Amino acid sequence: MSEMTILAFAIVAFIGIATPGPTVLLALTNGSRYGLRRALPGMAGAMLSDFVLIGAVALGLGALLAASEFWFTVVKWLGAGYLTFLGIMLLRSKGSLDVTEAAAASGAGSSASIFLKSLLVAVMNPKGYLFFSAFLPQFIVSDAPQVPQYALLAVVFASIDFAVMFAYALLGSKAVHLLKRKGALWLDRACGGALLALAGSLALYRRAAS
Length: 210
Description:
By secondary structure, the chain is mostly helical. The chain has 9 helices and no strands.
């Protein structure tokens, strides 16, 4: 795999990641509600999901979802349901700005909860598997060992993902401190509405006919 191939992959990956999706929206809301430092577990969860998705595609799971209407539908509705849950929770938010240790110890604001939300929202979205199944092979040299190539692309993708999420979390934390509580409320509602829209889009998503 040449340096130009990796650079081309990085550019296309950045464009795709920077377009707001569920994990980016969660990074934004985590930064606004809990601060940049406590948004880091969510970024770690999203990065782990990148390795899970790319590893699954390398093992053929993406092809399975593309071929099986049943499993595609199962993963799709799990993902849509979870996005709906997260969206409703944000819409019901009171715009809290709680970055205290007590909040960190509570369920919704704990590091484990923040980590799991970002992990699950990605691994339960069949679009991710199908996207990587179509996207990654274009950068894989077929007559060279494939595992190291998939591993390298996963590291590059996850690194870009982290940088983008860090920027969104930083933006959220700075914006809310400027806008205060009312700004936090409307940011939560905007992100909640966006997650519900993504849930609706996922629910309507159809597997391409094989």
